[in-house]
Backbone:
């Protein structure tokens, strides 16, 4: 059976790719490959991150500063290795750990930002 892979260069939104939303330092059997449903969730999440990026730049940025993804989608295997919760929104592509230049790491999940 051949290994499954994803197109890491696929753009989810203007500034975010599938590769950066699935990156991990852990090598796992499952390859940290999201389902189609998780990819759709990541697209919605990245839409929120685009808004955050724009607002960040209006208030604090130098014009086009990036939002840097520390962690996005996590498979069960990756989530377990990082010590994540079994109910983590990362498991379904609905959360990202991010940082902005010069700021502390922040957690952003649109589910909790209402």
Residues:
């Amino acid at each position: 059976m051949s290994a499954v892979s994803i197109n890491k260069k696929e753009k989810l939104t203007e500034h975010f790719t599938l590769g950066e939303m699935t990156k991990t330092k852990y090598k796992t059997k499952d390859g940290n490959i999201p389902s189609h449903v998780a990819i759709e969730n990541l697209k919605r999440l990245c839409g929120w991150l685009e808004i955050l990026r724009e607002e960040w730049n209006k208030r604090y940025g130098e014009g086009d500063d990036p939002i840097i993804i520390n962690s996005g989608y996590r498979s069960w295997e990756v989530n377990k290795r990082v010590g994540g919760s079994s109910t983590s929104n990362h498991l379904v592509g609905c959360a990202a750990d991010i940082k902005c230049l010069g700021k502390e790491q922040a957690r952003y999940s649109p589910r909790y930002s209402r």
Summary: The longest strand covers residues 67-71. The mean pLDDT is 86.
